Amino acid sequence: MTDIAASRVRRIGKRTFDFERTVAVMAVINRTPDSFYDKGATFALDRAVAAALTAADDGADWVDIGGVPFGRGPVVTVEEEIARVIPVVEAIAAASTVVISVDTNVAAVAERAIAAGASVINDTSGLWDPRMVEVIAASDANLVLTHSVGQPRAEKPRPEYGDVVVEVIAFLRDRVGRAVAGGVPLERLIVDPGHDLNKNTVHSLELTRRFEEFVAIGLPTLAAVSNKDFIGESIDREQGQRLAGSLAAATVCIVKGARIIRMHDVRASVDAVRMTEAILGMRQPVHAIHNTHPELNV
What we know:
CATH topology: TIM Barrel
Distance between the termini: 59 Å
CATH class: Alpha Beta
Shape: globular
Radius of gyration: 19 Å
Strand order of the largest sheet: 8-7-6-5-4-3-10-9
Largest sheet: 8 strands, parallel
Strand content: 5-15%
CATH superfamily: Dihydropteroate synthase-like
Structural class: alpha/beta
């Protein structure tokens, strides 16, 4: 399909984003006992809700609620995923205007989440569930289309690509075409090249290096780089020691056109994003008084 010219101004949930001038920070909230990052620290309902509201207070534009890890692990039934996710969505929607997204590849979960107050479905499976497009089309929700291959949570083959960027772009264009054909407007689609999802470290570095090629598809582009293994392997840092590397990767993606970044460390990420926006001329400084006092202008 040809390049897309979707509007860069979007009403998502209760907020409006001008992606020409704004980078949205998406905070990660895992309601799982086996998250690769927090190891279940926000599995309890009250902790998940508190973490989401704290993230909003710290400047996150939206929060991404996940009830099932991306990688292999114990089976989580649809009923259990709904039980984990929906109470969190309902509590956040009642207490905050922050955008709520739900990280799920199951259409039934997406449907319940949207009814509960979610305005974004973050489908990291690349439309594995054939009903996902139907559910999104019947709602006002935005949909994140992510590159990944194979059945969710199943053993994957060793990733091999001729040109990883070219192949990921082809995949994303195909999924955009499927979504539009199924009734989802372009103005409600977001793309994500899927760092580390069925990709090795060299592949993920190449995605970052050439991120502007994904942006050229013409849709708001999400970079989910926070604390991923390609960062740990690049700088030899274990989980829990990857903040600086995560901020560096996110900043490079922003400079190359990313307009949504999915991050764990919200306050540091918000500061890095706002500084990057200021450097790029996307926003004015909060204050601009340094060396402007009359006595100094001599």
